[in-house]
Amino acid sequence: MSMRYQAGFLTASFFPLKTPNAPTIGTLTTAGVVSFTAPANTGGGAIASFTAVATDSSSGATFVTTGASSPITISGLTVGSTYTAKVSATNAFGAGPLSAASNSVTIVPAIDFLVVAGGGGGGGADGGGGGAGGYISTVSPTGRNGTLASALTITLATNYTVTIGAGGTFNTGSGGQDPTNGSNSVFNTVTALGGGRGGNYRPTEFGGGNGGCGGGGGGETQPAQGSGTANQGYDGGTGQAAGGNRGGGGGGGAGAVGVNGTSTSIGGAGGAGLTSTFDSIQRGGGGGGGAQQGSGGVAGAGGAGGGGAGSVSPSATSGTANTGGGGGGGPDSTTTSATSGAGGSGVVVFKYSSSLTITIGAGLTGSTTSPSGGFKVTTITAGTGNVQWN
Description:
0% of the residues lie in helices and 27% in strands. It is built from no helices and 22 strands. Strands 11, 12, 13, 14, 15, 16, 19, 20, 21 and 22 form a 10-stranded antiparallel sheet that branches. Strands 5, 6, 8, 9 and 10 form a 5-stranded antiparallel sheet that branches. The chain is elongated, with a radius of gyration of 28 Å.
């Protein structure tokens, strides 16, 4: 407050309120996100917040959301209704005038999703555990503590492709088939990569495979682990490099690296998976490494989230279906009865407004929960086909 002289008296002089000018309006999207540019003239102080107001073009109802900066997602908008938006800026003196109106849009839904690929098969003969399938989500957490994927703004009555990846095959002993990587899972343009197979010692030697999560290295001759993929999963553990006693490395998980095998015939544990906020199910555990029979051998545990346990005799455990868990590594054995574990199959999960209805097309297997908290959750567990929302 300043003082001024008036008619022979000193009187108080008050500044008028100095609120900011109106922001420059940008674009309102079909997901209810409005962008804008802050005003150059901020009035009597720094801008503390912005307020976005959306108006229903039919009913005149308004929806107000406050944010710190552009853009602002306006809450409460109804799918299928049409809106325009305006924005004001607020400083210590109060709210300034509203901006000009934005473009007019009809709100369409955004679908949150989780995509998990099939886990890799475990390696044979003190083999490495299979890596878990790649884990991609729009809602925290996501694989390897990575960047979340963006929710998909869909067009109603439009087909979107879904593929559920199979788990990798297991090793069937001295003369049988070798393990394979898991298969990819797909939703629209998003692809989660199959988990890397575990490293093998017999009959054909190879290290852990690369994939969504890396396979663990095999014992003795092929100890190198496989690499995981950014934003999907972690690397596998290394196998024991040499010596009469050896353990395979654990497969990488969506939430942690696989543990290394050791020269004391201890297989590494599989890396842990992640628990989805969609349905509170843990998925993406790596397979445990196998270990040499005898010599006090101890197989590695499967990673929490569906990873199969390794083995010292006679067979390892497979990854759990629809978790993308890696298969456990097999024991050191030349007999055809000794096997590693197969990888677990993948899954695709959707979360969306309870006002929508999903159609699960031919070729897919899935189920939908009853509405809760304004949302439904649909889980697709097998096949290839299309889904659409109405």
